[in-house]
Design brief:
185 residues, mainly alpha, 68% helix, 0% strand, globular
């Protein structure tokens, strides 16, 4: 998804959909998210070869961030650059949560600096997230809050809640999927 891997065709397909979505076209929004999801899966699979089980969770987490940050998109820049910035931050967050010390596969000197800029937070994003989280079953909400918002490991969340590590993983996965479905509506 970095500038070296995004074909002009991807931007040409995504940009009109995203612009229509920003104007309120729900069909275009669903199509844009589907195209983004496909790009994100490819992006994360290349960068997480030993964590393939986590790819879909990270895709869903990134799509949720795209939804919450949609007001930060600046039409002066490519949609793919904005998406890449969000994806990179989510990947870095994952590595931090896991304590990974090695760098990402892309060298920073090879990356366009405009793709590294963090989009500013949307002022109401926290409130939007709270509303979405409240719609989840309590166990899913708690698992997501502990692992994705507080940054606890699955083992730490398991110790805190008394649920097994496998249960925490399932609750997070299902909760993120449910959140993504809510966002797509």
């Amino acid at each position: 998804m970095g500038s070296e891997n995004v074909s002009p065709d991807t931007e040409a397909r995504l940009r009109p959909l995203w612009m229509a979505a920003q104007a309120g076209d729900e069909r275009a929004y669903r199509e844009a998210l589907a195209l983004m999801a496909a790009r994100l899966r490819s992006y994360y699979r290349r960068r997480m070869p030993t964590l393939q089980d986590d790819v879909e969770d990270l895709v869903q987490e990134t799509l949720l961030a795209v939804h919450l940050q949609r007001g930060t998109y600046d039409p002066a820049f490519p949609v793919t650059a904005w998406l890449t910035a969000i994806a990179r931050h989510k990947l870095v967050d994952l590595w931090r949560r896991r304590g990974r010390k090695e760098g990402l596969h892309d060298g920073y000197e090879d990356v366009d600096e405009s793709e590294l800029a963090a989009p500013p937070s949307e002022p109401h994003a926290g409130r939007d997230l709270d509303v979405l989280l409240q719609a989840l079953p309590q166990a899913q909400r708690q698992a997501i809050e502990l692992t994705k918002l507080e940054g606890l490991s699955v083992a730490e969340a398991s110790n805190r809640t008394g649920a097994s590590e496998a249960s925490i993983k399932v609750l997070v996965h299902r909760g993120l999927k449910r959140l993504a479905d809510m966002v797509k509506r």
